Amino acid sequence: DAVPRKAISMSVKQILKSKEIICSVPDERKAVAVKNSLEHPVSNLYPASILQLHPNCLMCLDKSSAALLKHKITV
């Protein structure tokens, strides 16, 4: 019952065509994915790392999802 019956799926290629990308990543469950996406070179091993190539991508992280990043950013 918790799984949506319908969803919209977009390819990475289509997502990268966007003028702006806002990526909201809350929760500690995403900390490893955030670290891999931002601290590794772009690779199919880390699918979200492709966002590094987009000229206008905003990553909105909370303290938990950013906890494993090497460089701490305070706002």
What do you see in this structure?
With 75 residues, the protein is of the alpha+beta class. 17% of the residues lie in helices and 13% in strands. It is built from two helices and two strands. It has helices spanning 12-15, 31-39, and strands at residues 21-25, 57-61. The longest helix is centred in the middle third of the chain and has 9 residues, at 31-39.
Percent strand equals: 5-15%
The helix count comes to 2
Mean pLDDT reading: 92
Tell me the radius of gyration.
Answer: 14 Å
Which word captures the global form? globular
The helix fraction, in percent, is: 10-25%
Strand line-up in the sheet with most strands: 1-2
The total strand number stands at 2
How do the helices and strands follow one another from N- to C-terminus? HEHE
Distance between the termini: 38 Å
Largest sheet: 2 strands, parallel
**Alpha-beta classification:** alpha+beta
Kindly list the characteristics that best describe this protein.
75 residues; alpha+beta
List the helices and strands and how they pair.
Layout: H1 12-15, E1 21-25, H2 31-39, E2 57-61
Parallel strand pairs: 1-2
Short description:
With 75 residues, the chain is α+β, with helices and mostly antiparallel strands.
